[in-house]
Specification:
Strand order of the largest sheet: 3-4-5-6
Order of helices and strands: HHHEEEEEE
Radius of gyration: 42 Å
Low-confidence stretches: 94-100, 145-150
Number of strands: 6
Distance between the termini: 115 Å
Shape: elongated
Structural class: alpha+beta
Helix content: 25-40%
Strand content: 15-25%
Largest sheet: 4 strands, antiparallel
Length: 150
């Protein structure tokens, strides 16, 4: 009995394999959604709203356009400070090296410059008289037994 059942199942399986069933398929067609990549222009609003909903920060940066007068003032201040540093270093460097004998306080417009000898070398302090901001520059000593070269 078992062999008849097994024979019947085998016959049905072989018949199923021999009978061809027509299969239909269709082409896969990709249609982009983003209008920038060829999608429908009607999708722009929907995509933009979705992007705005995902944005988790506020744009609190100032306007990137610079005021030409402020830019001119900043450049002028940089130029003056550049000339000032060139003047200080130029007058302090002689044939024998840095002359530590010319210490003092100098005034250049809104800036005060204090020059003094320190244990680490020449200390130059620049003070903005309007804002009180200070910058200190130390020019290391290269001689004179101050920890530099003999």
């Amino acid at each position: 009995m078992m062999s008849r059942l097994l024979t019947a199942i085998t016959a049905v399986a072989i018949a199923g394999l021999l009978v061809a069933v027509p299969v239909q398929a269709q082409d896969f067609v990709y249609q982009p959604q983003n209008p920038a990549f060829g999608g429908s222009p009607a999708n722009f609003s929907w995509m933009f709203q979705g992007a705005q909903a995902q944005k988790d920060f506020e744009d609190d940066r100032p306007d990137f356009r610079r005021d030409p007068l402020q830019n001119f003032q900043d450049q002028l201040q940089r130029r003056i400070l550049n000339e000032l540093s060139r003047e200080i270093v130029g007058t302090r460097i002689g044939d024998s090296g840095i002359d530590f004998g010319q210490e003092g306080r100098f005034e250049f417009g809104d800036f005060f410059v204090e020059v003094e000898e320190g244990p680490d070398g020449l200390r130059i302090q620049i003070i903005n008289a309007l804002t009180g901001d200070e910058s200190t520059v130390t020019v290391p000593s290269l001689g004179g037994g101050l920890g530099g070269l003999p």
